[in-house]
Amino acid sequence: MRRTVEIAGGGIAGLASGLAFARKGWRVRVHEQDSGLRILGAGIYLWENGLRVLDALEVLPCVIRDALPGWRHEKRDRLGTLFAQSSISPRFRLYVPLREHLLSALYDGLIAAGGEVVFGSRAIAADPEGVLRFADGGTANADLVIAADGINSPIRDRLGLLKWRHPVGQFGYRVMIPRAVAELTSDVGRTHCENWNGSRRLLYAPCTETQAYVQLTSVRGDSAANRTPIDRDLWRATFPHLDWIIDRIPEHGRGDWFELVRTRSWSKGRVVLVGDSASGQPPFLGQGGGCAMMSAFTLAEAIDRARDITAGIADWQQRERPFTEWVQRVSHWYGQLAFLPVPLRLAAFRAIGSSERLKAATLFVAARRDPTAAAHWHDPQPMARAYDFPAIH
Ligand SMILES: Cc1cc2nc3c(=O)[nH]c(=O)nc-3n(C[C@H](O)[C@H](O)[C@H](O)COP(=O)(O)OP(=O)(O)OC[C@H]3O[C@@H](n4cnc5c(N)ncnc54)[C@H](O)[C@@H]3O)c2cc1C
User: Fold this and answer.
1) In what helix (H) or strand (E) does residue 170 lie, and over which residues does it extend?
2) Nearest to residue 157, comparing CAs of 81, 264, 240?
3) 126 CB less than 6 Å from ligand 1?
4) What separation in Å is there between the alpha carbon of 150 and the centre of ligand 1?
């Protein structure tokens, strides 16, 4: 008999999980509370790890169909002077497609693989025996229930799995801006660049020939900068040489305060947490979605390989959770550099940027992971390489 999975949440984690299980022959049903896919007008960093998962799920060409391959990542100060840079090689890829393309490719792949997505279906709780409960009073039984219901996950909280969630004191405004094809001929137009002035940051990421992704970040207490709609004059004064970007920023961007989530466990019985419900993190490594996709993929793989579902869940959690928590820590601490005085922060960026070993263990630790490789499953102690680092709390 076909095994069944009921999934709460039709975001990156829910759709990627659904597709991974559908590819294994399971009967999949995803419940999304909204009336359609939640399309944010923003780009999303997809590093090598996430790209490999999408490739294994057979949707990569669709996700990156008109996205430009990243080739260089830079950091510049308020005067536009370069102080750190990394090259992005074709063997260690980066794309920043539109989120919309990622979600619709996962959705289309899931439907084509025989999965079902029910819109306007809000889950409110789950029982460890494998029951998903809905706001309209209905229930669904399954071999496995996945709570991919995002950072505010009611399922996680009602199962008592949340240990803590903390604001990290940083705000981000995300938006897409138009760009001229001719800009691709200049290095500035082709390069991913983080521009810093004090604790304010403007990230410019080329997505397609005609669109770029811009993220403005600022810290708690900088009330002039952390609000929407943005104060254009303030951002022009902060980065005078970037008025060509700031002038194109539309009013309808999205603002978020970043948070960090830590759980007691990623599972209870037949209910598992995947994505931001389990591993919400600030976006400084561009890996929240990448971690969600890795977890989704490895969950389906681990259960498929195990004797039974609970053994598969246990193996998955043991392999994936410590690693993902490390990625969360790195992302948190890297983001906290924004609170340092400028000379100290510059020194920290330079120190990290000058050591390939340090970068491999921190900034690129998630991007370097390949959960689709056979070797990933032959490592008897997958977290023997867990990197020791100060705990956050
Ligand atoms: C500013 C910012 C920039 C980011 N940039 C990147 C990046 O460049 N690269 C990257 O990899 N990650 C990035 N991230 C992180 C990434 O967006 C998240 O990690 C990812 O979206 C998590 O996916 P998810 O499916 O777990 O949660 P969500 O995207 O929150 O999706 C949850 C879905 O579940 C639905 N839902 C919620 N509750 C219920 C319910 N009770 N019942 C049914 N449905 C429900 C929601 O409507 C939603 O559709 C960024 C995050 C932020 C805030």
Assistant:
1) strand 162-178
2) 264
3) no
4) 6
Q: Residue of the nearest CA to atom 23 in ligand 1? A: 12
275 lines ligand 1 (CB under 6 A): yes
From ligand 1's centre to the CA of 11, what distance in Å?
A: 6
Q: What is the pTM of this model?
A: 0.96
Where residue 367 sits, what CATH number does that domain have?
Answer: 3.50.50.60
Rank 17-31, 88-102, 244-258 by mean pLDDT and report only the highest: 17-31
Residue 196 in contact with residue 77, Cβ under 8 Å?
yes
Tell whether 330 is covered by a domain. yes
Residue 48 maps to a domain: no
Does any domain span residue 392? Answer: no
The residue-averaged pLDDT of 13-39 equals 97
Residue 259 in contact with ligand 1 by CB distance below 6 A: no
The kind and range of the H/E element at 316 are: helix 309-336
Three-state secondary structure call for residue 90: coil
Structure tokens at 73: 């990542």
Per-position DSSP letters for 234-258, written without gaps between them: HHHHHSGGGHHHHTT--TT-EEEEE
Q: Which atom of ligand 1 is nearest to the CA of 45?
A: 8
390 residue type, one letter: P
Residue 57: inside a domain: no
Q: How far is the CA of 146 from the centre of ligand 1 (A)?
A: 15
Structurally, the chain folds into a number of domains equal to: 1
- 330 half-sphere exposure, CB direction, 13 A CA radius: 25
Sign for the CA dihedral angle at 221, 223, 224, 226 comes to: positive
pLDDT digits (tens, 9 = 90+) for 345-382: 999 998 988 888 999 999 999 999 999 998 888 776 55
| Domain boundaries, position 324 | 4-41+98-166+260-343+355-377
Give the pLDDT score at 392.
Answer: 39
Q: Which residues contact 132 (CB under 8 A, 6 or more apart)?
A: 6, 8, 31, 123, 126, 139, 140, 142, 145
CA distances from 307 to 114, 122, 297, 313 (A): 25, 32, 18, 11
Q: Number of C-alpha atoms within 13 angstroms, CB side, residue 224? A: 10
Beta bridge mates, 69: 95
